[in-house]
Amino acid sequence: MAKKKLDITDGDVLVVIDVQNDFCPGGALAVPGGDRIIRPINRVAPLFDHVVMTQDWHPPGHHSFASSHPGKSPYDTIELAYGHQVLWPDHCVQGTKGAEFHKDLAIKHCQLILRKGFRREIDSYSAFFENDHKTPTGLSGYLQDFDEASRLFVVGLATDFCVLYSCLDGRKLGYHVFLIDDLCQGINIKGSLDAAYQSMKEVGVRIIKESDLL
Ligand code: VGL
Ligand code: ZN
User: Fold this and answer.
1) Any domain includes 111
2) What is the pLDDT of residues 129-151, one digit of tens each?
3) Are 149 and 177 in contact (CB under 8 A)?
4) pLDDT per residue over 20-42, tens digit each?
5) Distance CA 26, CA 90 (A)
6) Residue 197 counted as domain residue
7) Domain range spanning residue 201?
């Protein structure tokens, strides 16, 4: 017998993380196969009345860029005031082509585009809090205004960074969180992808597939 599909209802929010040119093949911080998830995301989006998209949005000289730290290379890690920081190639610089959403992403009914990572000294992986785990992005306040918002379905790039921290913070804030695994793609540095699944499972993020919805 076919497995029962999850019913999407009014309290469900699709959160689409960072589907931007720089995270897709040809971009400055390309996630392998990053563009393969775009059509499937377009396919599930109409199930949701509420869709939020995030956009990584850094000023030039952002502290997460290796180029801001003389002698450092991309993928080195350093200690900043708030803890470990992986250093990245310059990416998603405000107003550049690389920071634009991929042209194939087509979610006309998206209600909120939330930009993050715009403070020069602090990175922001999660859709909810910056990397100090304290400074809010505003998404939690926005969702609280939807009385019924209770389940978050998270998709996008990259599984082991921005998607991961968005899922963890979603749980901390008390939401039921579903990661639609085949609608995400990871970077995987030094085992970060396995570690990401492990920590999501530990806090009760449910890992599902597109076929659980459609
Ligand atoms: C991301 C690294 C740096 C992401 C953003 O979207 O996962 N990763 N900035
Ligand atoms: Zn970034």
Assistant:
1) yes
2) 999 999 999 999 999 988 778 99
3) no
4) 999 999 999 999 999 999 999 99
5) 14
6) yes
7) 13-56+89-212
For residue 166, give the CATH number of its domain.
Answer: 3.40.50.850
pLDDT surpassing 70 at residue 195: yes
Q: Which of 159, 106, 160, 112 is nearest to 137 (CA)?
A: 112
- Overall residue count recorded for the chain in this entry: 214
Could you tell me if the CB of 31 is within 6 A of ligand 1?
A: no
In short, whether 161's Cβ falls inside 6 Å of ligand 1 is yes
Instruction: Please give the Cα distance from 212 to 209 (Å, whole number).
Output: 5
166 CA to middle of ligand 2, Å? 14
Ligand nearest to the CA of 34: 1
Q: Is residue 77 part of a domain?
A: no
Please tell me if the CB atom of residue 157 comes closer than 6 angstroms to any atom of ligand 1: yes
| Closest residue by CA, ligand 1 atom 1 | 162
pTM comes to 0.97
Q: Is 204 part of any domain?
A: yes
CA distances from 19 to 81, 169, 210 (A): 28, 19, 17
Q: How far is the CA of 106 from the centre of ligand 1 (A)?
A: 21
Question: Rounded CA gap, 18 and 37, in Å?
Answer: 12
- Looking at the 3D structure of the chain, how many domains does it have? 1
> Does 56 sit in the ligand 1 pocket, CB within 6 Å?
yes
CA distance 60 to 57: 10
Give residue 100's pLDDT: 98
